[in-house]
Amino acid sequence: EETLKSAADDLEDMRARNPQILTTLRFFTDNLVVGCFYVTPSPKSELSHLCELLADFQLNMACRGLFIRGGISIGTLASDERMVFGDCLVKAHELEANSARNPRVILDPCFSNQNGVDLDMSACRLMRDVDEYLFVNYLCALIQPKYAPPRLELCLDEDRLKTHKDQVERLLEEKRHDPNVWSKYFWTANYHDAFCDQVQRKQYKINESLLRAQPVGLVKSM
After folding, report:
1. Contact 184, 101 (CB under 8 A)
2. Which one-letter DSSP state was computed for residue 118?
């Protein structure tokens, strides 16, 4: 509850800064619905803002040991103080329940250049997984601009990258007797290592021994 409250406060701050874009923000049980308004045929800018918001939320949760999954779709959404519904909510839920599987927020396949939605991959807010799904590269939230006279530079928060590493390693160790759950953190470890390679911080990669869950023989070696 404390983790959700802290992350929700951060989301509300972002919403206050972008009220014209973030039209819906609803928590129910352990689910979050975020709605963005767009008017252009190609909602590239709105999608970028949404991915930035979700990256911050995912990172805040992950650094507290809570890894989440979800889906992003496009369509209609209606909400007020009592309800939230719409076809894009249904599609996003189906993506989360049936396709995300691992702790990742994936995009509906309709978000592709082939289908007329222009994606701006240069912002590094997205990555493509081995199953071809695009997902939010939430560790990119570790890269923030910092003014270092006479210019603005991008800086990596290495302390939080190490925190993320520690949380993943802890869960790989704790869940090694539950293969169905362990596999999800195995995926997260691979994603973490891919990001470390991307930002050239190999010293923060996951301990390889935790990625080799091996059965134990009952007979002593000859």
Report:
1. yes
2. P
